[in-house]
Amino acid sequence: MRKGTLRRDVLRGMLGVVAADVMMAGAMKWADADVMPRVYTRREWGAVPPRRPPRVLDHPPDHIIVHHTASPNVPDMSRAHAFTLSRQIQRYHMKNQGWDDIGEQLTISRGGYVMEGRAASLPAIQQGRLVVGAQSLHHNNHTIGIENEGTYLEDDVPGRLWASLVDVCAWLCTAYRLDPAEAIVGHRDYNDTDCPGDVLYRRLPRLRAEVGRALDDAHRTEPPPGPDADPPSDERRRLTSHHHRRLRRHGE
């Protein structure tokens, strides 16, 4: 069994938890607030403080890394369970892995609930910046991670989780001006791991396509741009693709 699967095995057997709706407010640097999904803050799911203040970089990520938790595919789709999931992951990452905080910047439960992960992740996304996590060895300074609850070596992805994953990736691509065709990758693209599972990994081309369509649909419904507006989507994607390649050469 590979390291990426082993490091998550302790999460097996998790169930249950608490709740409350919260959405992050305020305008993002590049994003339309309408594309931001409902995200539950660390305070709402009951995070403990990190050991050290988060490190925030003054540049955006160039890739979005899709993970799975390698935990059981539980039938509990509740918000209470989603909050317990985040607390269990944080406890494991801090106590067993010795990390400063939960590893990924965002977590999605099987029920489709989206939680803020590492401290200060939501404000950083709002500002077009990157909180350094522990989502991918040697690549934490230029990527952002999404932890998806479950094990997807053979089982399919729940519809609610998938819908939220599309929404979250569309939001991040908008906030960071990323091209989903290039930006969305799996954990195994960077490290020797089974993550995010064969089934979810095979779905990544579909994820890139659905996020791309969502961005195009949003662009078609935008009002006519003013004289100081960002370039249109095709030109934006050309410019940011060059930006991604440049950043990747300097990534950790």
Task: Walk me through this protein's architecture.
The protein is of the alpha/beta class. The protein has helices at 3-6, 42-45, 79-96, 121-126, 159-176, 180-183, 198-202, 204-220, 233-249, and strands at residues 39-40, 56-57, 63-68, 106-108, 114-116, 130-131, 143-148, 184-186. The strands form two sheets. The protein has a six-stranded mixed β-sheet, sandwiched between helices. The chain has a two-stranded antiparallel ribbon with strand order 2-6. A hairpin with a 5-residue loop joins strand 4 (106-108) and strand 5 (114-116). Helix 5 crosses helix 8 (204-220). The longest helix is centred in the middle third of the chain and has 18 residues, at 79-96. Mean pLDDT is 83; it is low at 1-33 and 232-252.
Which descriptor suits the 3D outline?
globular
Q: What fraction of residues sit in β-strands?
A: 5-15%
Q: Give a short account of the largest sheet.
A: 6 strands, mixed
Q: Any low-confidence stretches, pLDDT <50, length ≥5?
A: 1-33, 232-252
Distance linking N and C termini: 26 Å
Q: Taking strands numbered 1, 2, ... along the chain, how are they ordered across the largest sheet?
A: 1-5-4-7-3-8
Tally of DSSP β-strands? 8
How many helical stretches? 9
Order of secondary-structure elements: HEHEEHEEHEEHHEHHH
**Helix proportion range:** 25-40%
Mean pLDDT: 83
Rg computed from alpha carbons, rounded to a whole number of angstroms: 17 Å
